[in-house]
Amino acid sequence: MTITLIPYWHNGVQKLKVAPQAPHPPKQGLTPPTFDVDVHIERCLMQLRSKTTNLEKYIYLSQLKHESPSIFYKLCLEHMPEITPIIYTPTVGEACVNFSHIYRRPEGLYVSIKDKGKIRSVLTNWPKVDDARIAVVTDGSRILGLGDLGVNGMGISIGKLSLYIAGAGIRPESTIPICLDLGTNTQRYLDDPFYLGMRQKRVADKEMEEFMDEFVREMTSVFPKLMIQFEDFSTDNAFKYLERFRKGNPVFNDDIQGTGAVVLSGLINAARLASAASKRPLTEHKILFFGAGSAGVGVAHQLMSFFTINGLTEEEARRQIYLVDSQGLVYDARGKLPEHKKYFSRDDYQGPPITDLLEIIDYVRPTALLGLSTIGGAFTNEVIEAMALINPRPIIFPLSNPVTLAECTFEDAVVHTRGMVLFASGSPFPEQQYNGNTLYPGQGNNMYIFPGLGLAAILARVSEITDSMVEASSLGLANVLTSEETALDLLYPRIGRIREISAHIAKEVIRAAQKAGVDRAHNLRKMSDADLLRFINERMWQP
Ligand SMILES: O=C([O-])CC(=O)C(=O)O
Ligand SMILES: [Mg+2]
């Protein structure tokens, strides 16, 4: 027997290890005579395409993932644009709504309010405690724009982690999808005999707080190398628990910070393209937020920090931002406001309340209109035309998920701006033909950010995730476009390049972590950028 040595990196030092022996060929007769993996990927694709509904496709893929993770992830990587909308937004939304009906087998970890006081004993039941590096945790209270889905929210934790594995090469056994069952206020589920969660209303704030304190304390103790991504908590709790736990723990909130980073990145590239006509840098744009929940306010804060880094005072930066919520323009004289909206409330408007979006556009004259309202179709043709009337290249981002809740379609945005729109949505839309040109919609979804950010957090073993790291992920994404992509007016890179994109983002985030002094893998500090990038690529799991 010959022994082959292969080089690898450990703590920044190149070492050698014995190459694994080729697996024994399958015993003759137990597989078909001419089985071939590459042909099998095509076979799976053919089987997938034969399903007539998206939900059936979702079920097919989750069975495939269970039976053969390597084939599943190979399929994902080779056909990212086709697979992503099934395992993730928008189909994952439908899968969550129906989760208790399509349920096949346990996947992930359920921690319920009845475990309060003994959460540790639930966490230690996880079969791969030592491998755990990343958990996506939801309480199901605001799944995409679909509202309180209770324990059915598990589907979103599973979907996000599939993208971590496919998009950033996190090892499958390092991931833990978690759903916290704190009850649900959705009566339809409480009445549903198939519903898999506790049949009770959501617990009161104080009880949730005690539960969350115990949960995070035990998570960091049972899984000391774990990063936690909070996902789809209702707005108040999203802000509250991010602030409560982010100091000294590697936690981040995908809806506030991930969405903030991805939208900033799209705005940077949109402003670059728009400036050819308007000569206006992003810092001079006026941004109107239609929707003031966790995502809207998260994006507004991300934008603020970009503005101030680029020379505006805090006051100047704040003046560029206008929030609209369900009661119209957010301004001081309107009366009491929830905490997360106060900072952006306008003091230069005295009333009366303006609720009509067209009137608000007329008053603000925004250069960019961002939809984070979960009100499908809120950007009517008149709204789109109004934006086109005041901007040569209007920036219109209907970001609500899933696709049915998008504020407008790409087609409407193209037609009513005569092809001039700079567009990104949260969920995917098909490209459009206009005047003989193909126009491409951007997908401003946090899926571009979290895989690379999480990979960086794991590799650099960070003690916390700073604003500067989130900012670095955003700028990293904005700068990763190829010249071919820029020439096509794309705002985001093609999703098929996700591994390359994630590696680049991870490098930028690790550098930011080092600057902030929150990295614990000090050996990465002395690597050159090229070595760090190679190290990141080598660490990615390959199906
Ligand atoms: O999951 C997605 O597609 C993006 C997201 O975080 C959300 O909409 O809550
Ligand atoms: Mg989310």
UniProtKB/TrEMBL annotation:
Residues 256-514 form the Malic enzyme NAD-binding domain. GO terms for biological process: malate metabolic process. InterPro entries: Aminoacid_DH-like_N_sf, Malic_enzyme_CS, Malic_N_dom, Malic_N_dom_sf, Malic_NAD-bd, Malic_OxRdtase, NAD(P)-bd_dom_sf. The active site is at residues 88, 160. Divalent metal cations. Prefers magnesium or manganese. Its cofactor is Mn(2+); Mg(2+). It comes from the Eukaryota. CDD domains: NAD_bind_1_malic_enz. (S)-malate binds at residues 142, 401, 445. A divalent metal cation binds at residues 231-232, 255. Residues 63-246 form the Malic enzyme N-terminal domain. GO terms for cellular component: mitochondrion. Keywords: Metal-binding, Oxidoreductase. One of its GO terms (molecular function) is malate dehydrogenase (decarboxylating) (NAD+) activity. PANTHER family: MALIC ENZYME-RELATED, NADP-DEPENDENT MALIC ENZYME. NCBIfam families: PRK13529.1. Belongs to the malic enzymes family. This is Malic enzyme. It comes from Crepidotus variabilis.
